[in-house]
Amino acid sequence: MSINLMILATRNITVDKTGAKDQQTDSFDLWCTPSDVTYNALSSKGTKEFYVNWVRKLDSKAVELVYAEDDTWESSVPIGTIERNYSLEHIKELEEWIAERESAGYDIKWISK
């Protein structure tokens, strides 16, 4: 079993109605990482950069078939194809998630799980 990376966003809040203090936590679904990648990422000075470079090296590309809008069961001939790069899509989603959380006052932490 490998030890994977995890990214957490946390912030302290005060509940308006009661004045109670609490903490909000959010996480992003990272890809499963081999234990050595997790260890090296957490040991590096830039965990995010290490992880992004690792994902980029995977270069996960695919060609997906596109079916007509009314072809719910994809039983007809495809009307086209679309090229996707899952690595680049994942990196973009991660960077957007981090930016949104940071602008909302969250602290970002990279940990192992």
Strand coverage percent: 25-35%
Helix content: 25-40%
Strand order of the largest sheet: 2-1-5
Distance between the termini: 11 Å
- Sheet/helix structural class: alpha+beta
Taking the sheet with the most strands, its summary is: 3 strands, antiparallel
The count of helical stretches stands at 3
Total strands: 5
Query: Any low-confidence stretches, pLDDT <50, length ≥5?
Result: none
Assign an overall shape. flat
Please tell me how large the radius of gyration is: 19 Å
Overall number of domains: 1
Round the mean pLDDT to the nearest integer and report it: 95
What sequence of helices (H) and strands (E) makes up the elements? EEHHEEHE
Report on this model:
This protein has 113 residues and is an alpha+beta fold. 35% of the residues lie in helices and 32% in strands. A 3-stranded antiparallel beta sheet has the order 2-1-5. The chain has one domain. The protein starts with a strand and ends with a strand.
Helices and strands in order:
Elements: E1 5-14, E2 21-28, H1 35-43, H2 47-58, E3 61-66, E4 80-85, H3 86-103, E5 107-112
Antiparallel strand pairs: 1-2, 1-5, 3-4
